[in-house]
Amino acid sequence: MKNYDYVVYQLNVQRSTKNLDSAVQIKIQEYKNQGYEFHSQVYVPVAISPGCLGSLLGGKTQYFNAPLFIFRKEV
Predict the structure, then answer these.
(1) What DSSP element (H or E) covers 40?
(2) Is 62 in contact with 48 (CB distance < 8 Å)?
(3) What is the pTM of this model?
(4) For FRET with 34, which of 19, 25, 55, 74 sits at 20 to 30 Å CA-CA?
């Protein structure tokens, strides 16, 4: 049976869509250079509650799916 070492990279969803493609490509290349291969992509549901000031100003909890990229290499 093969054993793998896994690395999970969470994409910063605050980036503009213009920069997302290059950010992902750069990260994939970094892990590839370290001997990892792309394994899968998953989305994790996340809820962000407003802070104290945001709550006072009527801010609502924001929900989104955070993309995670999973890389692996055989050990």
Answers:
(1) strand 37-48
(2) yes
(3) 0.70
(4) 19
